[in-house]
Amino acid sequence: MTDDVAGRVIEAEQERIRCLLDVDRGTYDRLHAEEYRLCNPTGTVWTKAEYLDLLTTGRVAYRKLELNGDMDAIAGTDVVVLRYRCFIELTVDGADIPRHEAWHTDVYTDDGGTWRCVWSQATGVMDA
């Protein structure tokens, strides 16, 4: 059962990544819980509304979100934690941020049959 749940949430996360690239408001709203928080690599925390505003105004614009390997999942009956590495290219407030790699950790909860992301954290991978 937990493998099936993990697979569904991994699919939801892949869809969430696409919606961030496409700035798809409907998918964004469906896949992010009202209490959603993102902690970005600078340590800044954004609410669901703040993040959506940044995306829709173009202050944050992803050019690339590309997985670097598989997504790992720890699944319970109503909580799933995902971890994966991703290459990112984006623009923030008009400044191009070149391609870099980050670890992503996302926590999903079951909201009455819909898996929604409640917490995300991205941590930059430093060159060795």
Automatic annotation (TrEMBL):
Superkingdom per UniProt: Bacteria
DUF4440 domain: residues covered: 10-117
Pfam families: DUF4440 (PF14534)
Coiled-coil region list: none
Gene3D superfamilies according to UniProt: 3.10.450.50
Name of the protein in question: DUF4440 domain-containing protein
